[in-house]
Amino acid sequence: MAGGWARDGAVQDQIDDTVSDAVKAARARIPVGESPEYCDECGEAIPPKRRAALPGIRTCVACQSARDSAVRHSTFNRRGSKDSQLR
Q: What DSSP designation does 71 have?
């Protein structure tokens, strides 16, 4: 049940769009192709087992950990509910 001028199912459509956007963003971060022998950021050798386990990886463990900690998730509020705005 939607409220106001929104059609029925509008809230579910917003939820589906949010999930779809998150999946697209995650897929865009998946590396593809052949892994180089050396890290693109620091130049250290990437261990062969890491390259075999993650095809297309371009960074060493230390640089990837730094990248992962810097990822910011979207805080865009699609629903516009008062409760989610108070966070």
A: -
